[in-house]
Amino acid sequence: MNTQVILGNATLTKTEKIRQLLALGLTRREVADLTGGNYGFVQNVFAKYWPERVTSKKAFTFTTFNRKFGIEIEAHGVNPVQLATALRAAGIECWTEGYNHSTRSHWKTVSDSSVQGTDTFELVSPILEGLTGLEQVKTVCRVLSQLRAKINKTCGLHIHFDAEGFGIDQLKNTVINYAHYEGIIDSFMPLSRREDSNRYCQSVIILAGRVGQANTIRELINLQHTRFQKINLQAYLRHKTIEFRQHSGTVEFEKISNWILFLHNLVEYSKKKQVTRAEANFESLQKFQQPEIINYLQTRINQLAA
Predict the structure, then answer these.
(1) pLDDT of the residue at 23
(2) Which residues is 242 bridged to in the sheet?
(3) Which parts of the chain sit beneath pLDDT 50?
(4) Among 37, 48, 108, 147, which has the minimal tally of Cβ within 10 Å of its Cβ?
């Protein structure tokens, strides 16, 4: 029985079609594409019928998201003073400031010359932590949506993770693993944020090939010629953070939260693991990403490929 016969058999349930396609030797990604794109559902079928082939959970233990982090949302179309006022009314302390890189105990709106449009701004969080921090982000997104904040190709979303406790191996692995998955990550980003298409979030592939030259964190940071890459290690010098710059601008909490959790899992995995270029495919993401994140990523890939 071949692929087309299985797909065309109206007497088979979707689950049975998936089982038979997997039995033919197709990858889970291929089967997901053939049957509607829900990778998580295909993974569940695979786990049911071939449990012995599922990656052992001992390989990576998911941790509760309790990381310290910060976000920067670039957008336009809302007067910054009006935005700060609306956020305070929603219980989020926020003030309008001039351009600065200072860490505050409150949210702030600052100017950003890279963003085009009317009433442009960058909304910068204080240090947030874990699920409580994500709840603040959710409220902020709700206010931005209510005020009809606008996004265009010049807008980005930047995520800072506290890296004070990182050793050099974890930093190296984070860069290498991100670089090896960069093609996959590009596929769930708009064209304007892929490869080297954006001067403000350039590829880290070349940097990843050079990290072996560094023996200290300072030497590793010095290998990066610009902070405008998908991972900005230079943020460590000022804030003791690493910055992820690739995501497109958005005021949608679903996109922001899934991206933050994706990065959290990647960074946690990088504590002890380094993915080879050959291993870095969509299917291998299941080793360190929850099924709901895999489902979200597959949906984004399908949307952006349409």
Answers:
(1) 83
(2) 161
(3) 56-58
(4) 48
- Looking at the DSSP bridge assignments, the partners of residue 71 are 159
DSSP letters along 79-123, please? -HHHHHHHHHHTT--EEE--S-----SSEEEE--TT--SSS-EEE
For residue range 111-151, list pLDDT tens digits in order: 988 999 999 999 999 999 999 999 999 999 999 999 999 99
How distant, in Å, are the alpha carbons of 23, 87, 148, 177, 302 from that of 298? 22, 33, 27, 19, 6
Structure-token match 């003030």, residue found:
95
Give me Rg for the CA atoms of the chain: 21
pLDDT, tens digit, 9 for 90 and up, residues 47-62: 788 776 655 444 567 7
Reference 286, options 268, 259, 265; nearest CA is: 265
Name the DSSP class of 203. Answer: -
Angle at 275 between CA 187 and CA 63, to 5 degrees: 85
pLDDT of res. 52 = 62
Phi, psi for residue 91 in degrees, rounded to 5: 95, 10
C-alpha distances out from residue 210 to 96, 181, 183, 184, Å? 40, 17, 19, 21
Domains and CATH numbers, the chain: 3-54 (no CATH), 68-158 (3.30.70), 167-231+252-305 (no CATH)
Residue closest to 171 by CA, chosen among 116, 238, 242: 242
